[in-house]
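User: Please predict the structure of the protein below. I'd like the answer in structure-token form so I can feed it into my own downstream comparison script.

Assistant: Understood. Taking the following sequence of 170 residues as input:
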Amino acid sequence: MNQPLVFKAPWGTSLKVLTGLSSAILAVIITIGIFLGPHGNLIWITGMIVIPLSMFFIASLFTIRGYLLTLDALLIQRLFWNSRVELSGLQSAKVDTEAMQQSTRIFGNGGLFCFAGKFDNNRLGTYRAFATDPKNSVVLRFTDRKVVVTPESPDAFAAEIMKLANRFLV
């Protein structure tokens, strides 16, 4: 592999619905804050305008645009930076369309522009997710952790990342 491989991160129906609903709720709160509140009250302005706008803006920065495979790492492409997952210690990469079902979010974002952070369920235990479409889940099992990603072509992604990981086993 001379060139890094890029896999898109398409949005699934659940992410589209949750992002739409969350955005609508935040828009209603902001609208109420602007038009119905006491304009001179700093607590009102902060709670009804500044905080909801900040939530929307900050969450949008963490949008997952794609997954880039390099010789030694998986880079999760965000809007302005990449989150890095080292490939050393990767034991397996398996497509599992039900991997994220019935998960509890421990810390992170549960559907405003992405599903990202630390999650837990009976199937995987505790894992880290960088997801946009849970139906495209690929479970990456490392010696010390589990990571779930959701690339556009899960089978091709799993095959390619294992080719890279096998370099570390030699």
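That's the full token string. Residues 13-35 form the longest helix (23 residues).
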